[in-house]
Design goal:
- The longest helix is centred in the middle third of the chain and has 16 residues.
- 33% of the residues lie in helices and 22% in strands.
- The protein is an alpha+beta fold.
- Strands 3-4-5-2-1-6 form a 6-stranded mixed sheet.
- Helix 2 crosses helix 3.
């Protein structure tokens, strides 16, 4: 491990197979969310930088849970971890069903899906022009 722990260099270290240049993600909320998802074994987490495509948000953080209960556990952990930064969701949708939980943190929106719902809604396809940061599930994440 190097002594360079800047978010930029680490973001490039954890990125793999992106369609475009990985976004330079410096938002602590995004990294805290990724830590939460990784801690609870979220599947295929990605970050889409949508800041240049829309004005309603800067980032989508997307991950998959293996079941409805796992999706709820991932959402619970994201909410718990972001609360340590004193960041609270403006709105949460879909928690009761646990198929697609949307957590609105203003310019960071977290989507946690079951595999079927992630495939059905295909946010990565819909926002394919966004910068995409793919996180390997075992990759060390920067501490911010």
């Amino acid at each position: 491990m190097t002594n360079d722990t800047s978010p930029t260099s680490l973001a490039h270290n954890v990125a793999s197979q992106t369609e475009r240049t990985p976004p330079n993600v410096e938002d602590r909320r995004v990294w805290k969310t990724l830590h939460a998802l990784q801690e609870k074994k979220g599947v295929a987490p990605i970050v889409l930088d949508i800041s240049e495509l829309t004005s309603f948000a800067d980032y989508f953080v997307i991950a998959t849970g293996t079941s409805s209960r796992h999706v709820q556990a991932l959402a619970d952990e994201v909410e718990k971890q972001l609360a340590t930064l004193k960041v609270y969701p403006r709105h949460i949708e879909g928690y009761a069903d646990g198929e697609w939980v949307l957590m609105d943190y203003g310019d960071v929106i977290v989507h946690v899906f079951t595999p079927e719902q992630r495939e059905f809604y295909g946010l990565e396809r819909l926002w394919s022009d966004a910068g995409k940061l793919v996180i390997r599930e075992d990759a060390p994440l920067p501490v911010m």
